[in-house]
Structure formats: structure tokens, C-alpha cells
Amino acid sequence: MCGIVGYVGNKDCTEVLIDGLSKLEYRGYDSAGISVLENGCIRTVKAQGKLKNLEDKISAGECFKGTCGIGHTRWATHGEPSDINAHPHGNAILSIVHNGIIENYMDIKESLKNDGYTFESQTDTEIAAKLLDYYYKGDPVEAIIHVLGEVRGSFALGIVFKDFEDTIFAVRKESPLIVGVGDGENFIASDVPAILKYTKKYYLLESDELAILKKDSVEFLDLHRNTIEKEIQVADWDMEAAEKCGYEHFMLKEIHEQPNAIKNTLSPRIKNGLPYLDGCGLDDETLKNFNNIFIVACGTAMHAGVVGKYVIEELVRIPVTVDIASEFRYRNPIITEKDLVIIISQSGETADTLAALKLAKKQGAKTLAVVNVVGSSIAREADMVIYTHAGLEISVASTKAYSVQVAVMYLLAFKLALINDKITEDACRNYTNQLFEIPSVISAYLEEKEQLQFIASKLVNADSLLFIGRGLDYAMSMEGSLKLKEISYIHSEAYPAGELKHGTISLITENMPVIAVATQKSLFEKTISNIKEVKARGANVILLSSCDSKTKPGMMLLIIELTFLVQMICLCH
Ligand code: GLU
């Protein structure tokens, strides 16, 4: 989800919009565009790629002379990055910029087509623009309220109308949007850095609130047109802190973005309480009757694949093999046209993974990509794509991208199980509901950072440590161990808890802490036995569990009650 900027004042708004968009560059984007109100007309220019491409287009054409306009940098979710799919979208009457996802855009598109509308882009945004046009009869607020009554999803919108040359309208649902207040000028932005150069004062727009900005006034309305009084905020951040939304670093910011990322990934894919993957090219017929499934990926994405293996095998009873892409492509794998190869990659550009995908296609397998970047090489190459909607991940160590990949693995497992008659519709609905609760459970857990800081303080001086777990707990341990190595430079290994005794246990001393993950009821006592083995050799153990059992051995360094993991992991047990 990317950047929105809007300006109304006395300055040349093209300059302010481009400057604001450049301040949002750290969020990453694939295209950009602006609409400026000029002499009673809406002038729009858009360009795929860097902001420089947009600037070049603007300076090559006539410059726009206007003091009110909106701008956007796009992180594609619906339709590849291209000039046509770039925002703003609209027509001669109105123009909109949009962050987020309109979930029911397909249904709205169908009904608008029946009313004679045609569409040129592949975006969900264009549907919102045309719907707004459909309801607009001279009163923008009326039209916006109608649209909000119809669209589902999480989104922020900035809108200008030809007939209202000095006004910006803005509204949001879940996706962030602020209203900056200057002296004789006002702004909208998806993030504070875009306006910091001009003002430090801003209002936070809440969900289902509408803002109407003119150069000398800002008015807020609820969806019944009642005026709302809001408290002004003052940003005391410098530019760098503002980019990180006040977090110390991008990784921490992205950890806190997990709940929204999962929600954005799941909600467009659930219809009537059931997994809905039709828009991804995955019709039921295609998904039936595979002999084998291969999941191929690297690093963190591969670990999400291991979770996928456990869940799919448990629910669907099809053999699943997880492969590291750099091994798969050179090991002459045995794949046939009756197999499904799932390729997971955040960027969609991972070289070994792309090569593995090409190999699988050459051998006739059906290929399904799970990627975050729309229009990336892997997304283009694969037969079918499920996009994760995590937004840009700036931190090199992946966090929210892993969470959304895991969420997709679960959703896919539910879908496969349902269409292969392994679970009933009721059971599937129940699983899907539980999965959809995960974002709020994660949000609650992220509030408890003191406990996590305490554990970190116990581990900080270790040279080496072990993660142990069984089944899904082992899958998660693999990712935990990788993250620890990558971030703290402390050596660690993830081990299947039952395998430890075949040699590696000899390394255990009081200087090698053990993080034991035991969240699955069915394996809890087995893992507890393994914990006793390492404790007997002096290890300090941190147990991650929520299984309420009296069998937990005493003298544990710390027991973390991981309710959210258990909810996620025990769905199928
Ligand atoms: N869903 C919209 C699109 O794909 C907006 C994406 C964004 O937030 O940048 O164009």
C-alpha cells in the first residue's frame, strides 16, 4: 500500500505534490501520477517506474498551472505496474487516488458494466472512481457516502471534482490518512513525511470520517454529514523518524504491520466465510486431483513452505515436498504434469526460485506463485498467482512477509481440503474464521513487549543456542533460528526435538540456552520429555507454549504463553 499526497493552497501544486511523493519514496512504489485542477479541467499525468519518469513527462508536456491537486505512488495490488494502472483514476468529472484494496470490486464492476460503464485498467481503484461517478449528481459528499456504503475493504481515498476547483475530499477505512494544516494551505497524505517540509500540524483521519479541505479551512464529517471536532496533532519527529513512523527501525515497524498485512492478504480471499481464490486463476477444477505438491523457495519463504507442508498434508492428504530452490534446480527433480509446484517469494525476483519455477514448467507441472510484488518475474512466469498484500518490506530480515506467506499456506490448505472433499463446508468455514482472527490476536500480543525484552536480556550474551520443536513447532523454530542468526549474529540451530538425542545433545551446556516450542497439544508431552533431556545437561530453557498442562517441568527460565501461535498452529489439530 503506497503513498497519497494532496495539496490546496496558493503554491504551484505540481511542485508540492512531486515533492511530497518523493518523501514517500522509502515506502517503495512501481508507478506514480498526479491530477491537478486547472481552469475548470482535471489534468492528469501518470508514469510507470520511478518518480523521475513522471517528472520527465511533466516537463516534456505543458506544465500544469494549478493550486489544488492529488498525487499517488502505487504499490500494485490489482493489475501489473503500468501507465494505465497507475493512479489517479477517473474521468473529466472527478479523479481519485487510492491506497489499499477494494475487496468487492469484481461485483461492483459487473453491475457498473450493466449500467454502460467501460474500464481501461485492471485496478480495483478504477471501479471506485466509476462508482463515484455513477452516484455523483452535483453533491460530492452525497456521492462519497453512497460509495462508502457499497465498497468493502481497507482503503484511503483522495478525490477532486472538476466542479469544485479549490477543494479536496478525503476519506478512509483502516488504511492511514492524515490531513496537514498549514497557513493558507492544507494537505492530505498517507504518511507524515510527505508534509513535514510545509507543516508539523496535522489531524489523524479516522475510519469512516470524511475530510473536506479548502486552502483556508478543513471540515470533518461523519457518514451522516454531522460535523466532527478533532484534536490537532503536532509532529515532533525529524524526517528519518517520520519515515519509520516513530519506530526505532524498519524491522520493528514491519513487525507491527503484521496484523494489517495478514488482514489485507486474507480479506479479499474469503467469500461467505470460505476461501475464495478464483481471482488468482485457481478454479476448483485446476486444484483437484494433484498427485504431489512441491513447495520451492529460499530462506524465510522456504520456512513458510514447511508450515504449508504440515498443514496441507494434515488436511488434504496429498504428499508435499519442500525444496530449497538452489537445491531443487540442480537435483533433477521428478515432477510430472499431475503435480503442483508452489513457488514462494517475497520479491518475486529470487533468482534460484525463478529458475526452479522455469524448470517445473518445463517438466509440465502446474505452477502457483505466492509472491508479494505484483508483476514481478515469478508472478508473470507462473500459471497462477496468489499475491500476498504485505506492502513493501524494507528490512532485509523478513517478518511480515513470512506471516502473510504462512496465512496463505493455511488458506490454500483449507481450499484444497474443501474441494478434494476432505473437510466439510462447515469445518472449512470454522477454520477460515479462526484464521481471520489471527491479526487481532497478534495485535494484542505485540502490546506485551516487556516480556520479550526480558527474554532478549537473558540471551544476549549467549554464543550459541538451540531451537527445538516437533511438527509445526519445528517449522516455526527454523524461522526463529534464522531470524536470530540474521539479526543478532548469535549462532543458532533449529532441531526437531526428537532428533536431538542422536548426537547433537552432547553440545548442551549451561552456556547454550534452548528455546523449546511446544504449542501443539498432540505433541506437547513428547516435547516436554525432550526438554527434560536438555535440562538434565544443564541447559537454560525458554518454553514457548500455551498448552495448559501440569507436565511442564519446573525451573524453566521462562514460559511464554503464545496464545496467538497456538491459535494459528493448532487450527488443524
Ligand atoms: N489497489 C490499488 C491498486 O492496485 C492501490 C494499491 C496501492 O495501495 O498503492 O492500484
Describe this structure in words.
This protein is of the alpha/beta class and 573 residues long. It folds into 3 domains: 3-242, 4-Layer Sandwich (Glutamine Phosphoribosylpyrophosphate, subunit 1, domain 1); 250-445, Glucose-6-phosphate isomerase like protein, domain 1 (Rossmann fold); 449-572, 3-Layer(aba) Sandwich (Rossmann fold), CATH 3.40.50.10490. An 8-stranded antiparallel sheet has the order 3-2-4-1-10-9-11-14, covered by helices on one side. Strands 5-6-7-8-12-13 form a 6-stranded antiparallel sheet. Strand 7 and strand 8 (168-173) form a beta hairpin. The longest helix has 22 residues, at 425-446. Glutamic acid (GLU) is lined by residues 1-2, 74-79, 85, 98-101, 123-125.
In short:
This protein has 573 residues and is α/β, with parallel strands linked by helices. The chain has 19 helices and 26 strands.
User: What would you give as the CATH superfamily of the largest domain?
Assistant: Aminohydrolase, N-terminal nucleophile (Ntn) domain
Name the strands of the widest sheet in spatial order. 3-2-4-1-10-9-11-14
CATH class categorisation of the largest domain: Alpha Beta
Oligomer: single chain
Q: How many helices?
A: 19
Q: What portion of residues is helical?
A: 25-40%
Q: Provide the low-confidence segments as ranges.
A: 561-573
Q: By helix and strand content, what is the structural category?
A: alpha/beta
CATH architecture of the largest domain: 4-Layer Sandwich
Which band does the percent of strand residues land in?
15-25%
Total tally of structural domains: 3
Q: Major beta sheet, specifics?
A: 8 strands, antiparallel
Radius of gyration of CA atoms, rounded to a whole number? 26 Å
Bound molecules: glutamic acid
Mean pLDDT: 91
Could you give the distance between the termini? 35 Å
What would the principal axes of the Cα set say about the shape?
A: globular
CATH topology of the largest domain: Glutamine Phosphoribosylpyrophosphate, subunit 1, domain 1
Count the E strands: 26
